[in-house]
Design a protein that fits this description.
- InterPro entries: Palmitoyltrfase_DHHC, PFA4/ZDH16/20/ERF2-like.
- It is a multi-pass membrane protein.
- One of its GO terms (molecular function) is protein-cysteine S-palmitoyltransferase activity.
- Belongs to the DHHC palmitoyltransferase family.
- The chain is mainly α.
- It has eight helices and nine strands.
- It is 45% helix and 9% strand.
């Protein structure tokens, strides 16, 4: 019988793998429930580079980079470099390009960080015996990736893995947003919203300046080309600002309420001890409030990117 103190959710099938007495049938590791004390199946820190080989996600991630680089081109070469004020160009250029670098770095960290994947295929007879399961306690096994399913984990059909505290799968970062990379996704949405607002402000100033003077004097491009580039930039900035601002607010709300988007949509009643408001923020961003919360380079180890090994390859992601 399932213990109320160890009740896990989101299982498509509920077939017992271990009886209440702890007996394990040979070859009986089909989809279903594992009886015993709750374990998350985590076998240590994965030090490999995470990347999802999804066609749609890779296209969306490429489009994201292209649009950010396009915004940098228009801001720098159409608006700032031709400006007559040196300090106006310097200060706005430094601010915009710094925010753009932080946005792209946050995007890379979100895309290349393991979101909290549960080890695939760890629901074996040997592993069950090593857990020293207690009779009457229940854990679950995912029927799709054949792994022990921790509490609050959900299976992603694109990543083909169970993800701890999975919020959603975002094609724009070609990855799931989960326990280990949510902070980078929040930073990505924040920095994209900031550079979008900055680009809109610069575009408005540029239009106002060029209307007062001659277009040929305020841009190195012809008036027609300049107008087209600025109009497209404004449309892009409005779209990105709206989307990322809403997403940023949604993520902060989820963190402060310790509830993922999937849990909210499914209206799941919490069986865990909630860490709300600042406790939730500290759990996601790590430590007390500081400027490190806004730094997407925190914890980055260059050695992991320099020394590449291809010793593991599994599912739709590869390890480097």
């Amino acid at each position: 019988m399932q213990s109320s103190n160890h009740r896990l959710r989101d299982m498509e099938q509920h077939h017992p793998l271990l009886s209440a007495s702890g007996d394990v049938e040979a070859g009986g590791l089909g989809a279903g429930v594992i009886m015993g004390s709750t374990h998350n199946g985590h076998t240590g820190v994965n030090r490999s580079l995470w990347f999802i080989q999804d066609g749609c996600g890779m296209v969306c991630a490429t489009i994201t980079w292209f649009l950010v680089l396009y915004a940098e081109f228009v801001v720098n070469f159409v608006m700032l470099l031709p400006a007559k004020s040196f300090w106006y160009s310097l200060l706005n250029g430094a601010a915009f390009n710094s925010l753009a670098v932080l946005a792209l770095a946050s995007h890379l960290r979100t895309m290349l960080t393991d979101p909290g994947a549960v080890p695939k295929g760890n629901a074996t007879k040997e592993y069950m015996e090593s857990l020293q399961l207690k009779p009457g306690e229940v854990i679950y096994k995912c029927p799709k990736c054949c792994s022990i399913k921790p509490e609050r984990a959900h299976h992603c059909s694109i990543c083909k893995r169970c993800i701890r505290k999975m919020d959603h799968h975002c094609p724009w970062v070609n990855n799931c947003v989960g326990e280990k990379n949510q902070r980078f996704f929040v930073l990505f949405t924040m920095y994209i919203a900031l550079i979008s607002a900055h680009a809109l402000g610069l575009s408005g100033m540029h239009f106002f300046t060029c209307i007062k003077t001659q277009w040929n004097e305020c841009s190195n491009f012809s008036p027609g080309v300049s107008v087209l580039l600025l109009i497209f930039l404004c449309l892009e900035a409005i779209l990105f600002l709206t989307f990322t601002a809403v997403m940023f607010g949604t993520q902060i709300h989820s963190i402060c309420n310790d509830e993922t988007e999937i849990e909210r949509l499914k209206n799941e009643k919490p069986t865990w001890e909630r860490r709300v408001r600042w406790d939730g923020m500290k759990a996601v961003f790590g430590g007390p409030p500081s400027f490190l919360w806004c730094n997407p380079f925190t914890g980055l180890r260059l050695r992991r990117l320099i020394f590449l090994t291809y010793s593991r390859r599994s599912g739709s992601e590869f390890s480097v």
